[in-house]
Amino acid sequence: MIIAKPIQLRSKGHDLDMDERSLGRYRDCSDMVGDLGRLREHMREEGYVFLRGYLDCEDVLEARRAMTERLAAEGILDPEHPAMEAVAHPDYRGDQAHLLARDCPELEKVLYAGPMMAFFEGFLGRPVYHYTYTWLRALAPGVGTPMHCDVVYMGRGARSNLYTAWTPLGAIDLELGGLMMLERSHLLDRLRNTYCKRDVDAWCTNRRGGDKVKTMNGENGILAPDPNRIRKSLGGRWFVGEFEPGDLIVFNVFMVHAGLDNQSDRIRLSSDSRYQPADEPFDDRWNGPDPPRHGPRAKRGMVC
Q1: What is the number of domains present in the chain?
Q2: Is the whole-model pTM more than 0.90?
């Protein structure tokens, strides 16, 4: 399906090509719920599963309420509007507020209990471990998240059985933007054998200037700046969509994805959470009461 104008979609300031060969919509997989074989096959072939209304809408809205109250307390929201509308303060230029997700029972109920955990327990067919670090995205009006694959940021554990859940915390239309994915990019050997082997926190002890990464915060995980060029180079279409509270997208950590630019005056609220089989090793950068993240404790020297 072609995305109807009037809005011209953008990512990182680039106008997306919007013809039918370049842009498509996610396929709603709700008809596969209860058929684990079909869900797994769709994930293998397409790299994602999109479930409309799978999560409890009221729970998601309570999580949104808790998050917008915290954003308001930090001066991130415009006090002239109700906090639930998440209208950005004119001075806010951020793209995420990760630490505000700490110790939030309303958000944890959505991400780490109920339908979410039931999905992964069924999909993986064994006990599930979720990463303890929650990525809260609070994208201000402006450019979205650059193109990348998650595996380069968290590939020290169960790479082949690690999945990301993208959860919109409120309605997200095309003006607000949202998540976009490059069609079947998780299957591309040219990425798996090169870029996807990267570890953003590893540095070369035997190369001049190789220790630059020790001072970086994951910037070397960015795949490319121009979404049209990378689509033409790798093939496939960019998939986009509009979302309601309760919608859920789960995707493979080898999937190329990015954020559409936010062309509204509101903050786009969503979360990224990760899940894997409990009996496989996990990436300790994102786990425990005080995870290293991309800080100095996460850096790893190696001979290249």
Answers
A1: 1
A2: yes
